[in-house]
C-alpha cells in the first residue's frame, strides 16, 4: 500500500527562488546545497495582500468564522429513504441487467456507493492530504514557501481531520439507519488510489520520490469533483446527506485556492529535468483520483448474484472508455489550465502525455 511520508521531507530541499517576488523565506530546517529542487469565495487575510506574504494571497483570513469544524456541527442522518446517491454518478445502478432485478437491487447498490464515497473521503484525507499539509506546516515539504502558507497549512490539517471524522461517523449513522454495513465483508482493502500512487512513485527517479505525494494532494484538492458539485443540489437525496457534502465542498473551495499556489511553488522549484520526469505523470495522478474503483463495483455486482459475464458487460457498458475520458477532461479542465499557467505544458513529453489522456482542449 502507498507509503505515508509524514515523518520525512517530501522532497530534498529546494534552494532556488520561488515564484512571485522571489523573496520567500526558506522553510525551517530546509537545507541549502546543490540541486533546485473553481470555486473560491475565499478572502485574503486583512493587511496581507501585498508581497509581505511572498506573493501568496491566502483564503483563510476568516477561517474561524467559515470553517466547518468551527461553525457547522456534524449532520445527523435521520432520513432513510430509497435514493442514497445520484444514480447518474454510479451508472452500474442504471444498467438494464441491474434494474431488471427490481428497485431493491438499485437501492442497495447506491447505498454501497455512498459508503464507498464516505470511506474514500476518510481514506483520502488521512492517507494522502493530511500527511502532505502536515509536512508543509512543519517545514518538511522541501519547498521554499512563505511563512503564511505554513500557517494556513495548519488550518487545512484541522479541516481535513474534521472531514475524515464526520465522513466516518456519518457512514456509521447511515449503516444503523439502513441495516447495510459501512464495512465490506473482507474489510474492503485499501482504496484504489493508493495502488495507483505506488505505480506513479515507481516511475519517478529515486531522488525525487516523494513528489508524487505533493502532486496527488494538488490534484485531489483542485479538481472539481462531480460529487461535491452535484449532491448538494440533488433534492432526491436525504437533506442531511446534501448538507454533509455541502459543508465539505465549502471548505474545499479554500483548499482549492491554496493548492493552486502550492503548484506554482512546486513547478518553479523543480529543475528542467525533474519537470520532464514529473510532468508526464500528472495525467496518471488525475486518473488515480477520478477513475472509478472497478474492483469494488464488480464485488457489489457479484454480491447481487450476477454471473461473471454479466458483471463484465455491466462494467464495460457503464464506463465506456470514450465517456470516461470525456468526464475526466471535464472535471480536470481548471487543473489543466493551472498546469499550463505554471509552464508544465511547455515540456513536449508532458504535453504529449496530457494529449494522449484526452485532457487538452483547443484553448489549452
Residues in helices, as a percent range: 55-70%
- Radius of gyration, whole Å: 21 Å
What is the residue-mean pLDDT, rounded to a whole number?
A: 85
Q: What's the order of the H and E elements?
A: HHHHHHHHHHHHHHHH
How many helices in DSSP terms?
Answer: 16
Strand content: under 5%
Unreliably modeled segments: 16-54
Give a quick account of the main beta sheet: strands, pairing sense, barrel closure: none
Secondary-structure class: mainly alpha
Terminal-residue CA separation: 35 Å
Number of strands: 0
What characteristic shape results from the CA principal axes? globular
Tell me briefly what this model is.
This protein has 364 residues and is mainly α. 57% of the residues lie in helices and 0% in strands.
Compile the SSE list and pairings:
Elements: H1 63-66, H2 68-71, H3 96-99, H4 103-137, H5 147-178, H6 192-203, H7 211-222, H8 226-230, H9 239-269, H10 272-278, H11 282-290, H12 294-303, H13 308-318, H14 321-331, H15 333-342, H16 348-356
Helix pairs in contact: 4-5, 4-12, 5-9, 6-11, 7-9, 7-11, 9-15, 12-13
